[in-house]
Specification:
Layout (H helix, E strand, L loop, with lengths): L16 E6 L3 H14 L2 E7 L2 H11 L3 E5 L7 H11 L4 E7 L2 H12 L4 E5 L6 H19 L34 E6 L3 H12 L8 E5 L3 H15 L3 E3 L11 E3 L5 E7 L2 E7 L11 H12 L3 E5 L8 H9 L3 E5 L9 H7 L5 E3 L1 H13 L4
Parallel strand pairs: 1-2, 1-3, 3-4, 4-5, 6-7, 6-12, 7-9, 8-9, 12-13, 13-14
Antiparallel strand pairs: 10-11
Helix pairs in contact: 2-3, 4-7, 6-7, 6-11, 8-9
C-alpha cells in the first residue's frame, strides 16, 4: 500500500511531532527511530518493548503519535491499546504488524478500538525494497498525522463537532436523480469511517450496490470485507473480475489491484486491472470514480472520507461533469483531511458533512427522502 507523497515541510518550523515507538525488537525500535530522526520534524519521546511499559510511558511522555506493534510479550498490542488510549486519549495510534491473516484481523480489531491506522511491517527475509516502501509510508503517515491538530479519539456517539476551518461553499446539488450506485473512497482512518457511514445507511443498503476503495494491503481488504458482512448482515466481499454490480451487495477493491466498472450485455460488472498506480495508489479511488462516471453518469453517488493524499479528486471531476453528487467528510471529523480536503478545495463537493451526518444524508438521497 502506498500513498501520494506529502510535502516534506512537516510540522511548523521549530515544532516537532512527539512519537513513541512500541516494539519488542530493539532492532526495529532503533531502525524506526533513525528513520524518523533523519526525516526531520519528529521527536522520539519514548520507546517500550511491551504493552505494559507502553501504558506507563504514554502517560508519562504524552506522545502525539504511537507506533504500536501487535505481537509482544507480557501485554500485546491489542490488550494494551485501550489502556494506552485511556492513559493518554489524545495519542494517535498506528498499529504495525507483519502481513499475516491473523495480524490483519487483529489490526482491524485495533482500528475498532481506537487506532487510527495500520502499517504492514516487512519481514526480515524480504527484499530491501519492502523496507524502503515501509519507511516511505511510515514517514508519510506520521507527517500527515503530525500536521493535524491532536485531539482525543471520538466515539460514534460523540456530538457533531465545530468545524476546524472554513471551507469553500459547496456546489449546488445537481438535478434530482435517484442514485443507482454508491461509491466510497477512503484511506487513513477510513475503516471506522466506512463502518459508521454504512451502519447509518441501513436499511437502504438493500436497495443499492456499494463499491469501496479503501487503501490497504491485499490481505487486509479481504478481512475488511468479511468484517463489513458480519457487521452489517449484508453480502460483502472483495470485488472479482466479472462480478455483477447488484443492489444489496458491497464490493471492496482488492489490495494491489485497481477496481473499475464496465457495462456489457445490459449488466454492469467489476473490472480489475494491474495498471500503474495513480496518485501512487493501487487501488486508486480515481479509477473507480472515473469509470463509474462513464457508466452511471448522474445516477452515481460518491463520498470521499478521511485519508491522506489527493486520490479521488480527478475522479470526482468526471463525476461532477456527468451530473453525479459528491459528498466530502469535513475536516473536524477526519483523521487526516487530505483526500476529502482536496475535493473541497477543488470545488467538487456538493456537501461537506461531519461523519455523523453522512450516512443520514446518503440515505435521504438513496430513498428519495432528502429535502
Amino acid at each position: 500500500m502506498s500513498h501520494s507523497p506529502l510535502s516534506q515541510t512537516g510540522p511548523a518550523p521549530g515544532r516537532l511531532t512527539r512519537v513513541m515507538i512500541v516494539d519488542d525488537s530493539a532492532v526495529i525500535r532503533g531502525m524506526i527511530g533513525r528513520w524518523l530522526t533523519e526525516a526531520g520534524g519528529f521527536d522520539i519521546v519514548a520507546t517500550a518493548s511491551n504493552g505494559r511499559m507502553a501504558v506507563d510511558a504514554a502517560e508519562r511522555s504524552k506522545p502525539e503519535i504511537i507506533l504500536l506493534d501487535i505481537e509482544m510479550p507480557e501485554v500485546d498490542g491489542l490488550a494494551a491499546l485501550p489502556m494506552i488510549l485511556k492513559a493518554h486519549p489524545a495519542s494517535k495510534v498506528i498499529v504495525i504488524s507483519t502481513l499475516t491473516q491473523r495480524n490483519a484481523e487483529i489490526s482491524l480489531k485495533c482500528l475498532s478500538l481506537g487506532a487510527v491506522d495500520y502499517l504492514a511491517k516487512p519481514e526480515s527475509a524480504r527484499a530491501a525494497g519492502a523496507a524502503a516502501d515501509f519507511r516511505r509510508d511510515l514517514v508519510d503517515k506520521l507527517r500527515a498525522l503530525g500536521e493535524t491538530k491532536a485531539r482525543p479519539a471520538r466515539t460514534f456517539a460523540a456530538p457533531a463537532p465545530t468545524v476546524v476551518s472554513p471551507a469553500p461553499a459547496p456546489l449546488a446539488r445537481p438535478s434530482a436523480t435517484r442514485p443507482q450506485c454508491l461509491l466510497i473512497g477512503s484511506s487513513t482512518g477510513g475503516p471506522r469511517a466506512v463502518e459508521r457511514v454504512l451502519l447509518d445507511l441501513k436499511p437502504a443498503l438493500a436497495t443499492i450496490p456499494v463499491l469501496i476503495v479503501q487503501h490497504m494491503p491485499a490481505m487486509f481488504t479481504a478481512v475488511f470485507a468479511e468484517h463489513l458482512q458480519t457487521l452489517l448482515s449484508v453480502p460483502a466481499r472483495e470485488g472479482r473480475d466479472g462480478d455483477v454490480v447488484a443492489p444489496g451487495t458491497i464490493l471492496v477493491a482488492p489490495g494491489g489491484r485497481h477496481m473499475g466498472v464496465v457495462s456489457s450485455g445490459g449488466k454492469t460488472t467489476i473490472r480489475l486491472n494491474d495498471g500503474p498506480p495513480e496518485n501512487f495508489c493501487r487501488p486508486a479511488v480515481d479509477v473507480l470514480f472515473r469509470e463509474a462516471a462513464a457508466i452511471y453518469g448522474a445516477s452515481a453517488l460518491a463520498v470521499v472520507l478521511t485519508g491522506m493524499g489527493s486520490d479521488g479528486t480527478q475522479g470526482a471531476r468526471f463525476l461532477t461533469k456527468a451530473g453525479a453528487t459528491v459528498i466530502a467528510q469535513d475536516e473536524a471529523t477526519s483523521i487526516v483531511w487530505g483526500m476529502p480536503g482536496s475535493i473541497v478545495k477543488a470545488g467538487l463537493a456538493h456537501d461537506i458533512l461531519p461523519l455523523e451526518s453522512i450516512g443520514r444524508s446518503l440515505k435521504g438521497l438513496i430513498t428519495g427522502a432528502s429535502k
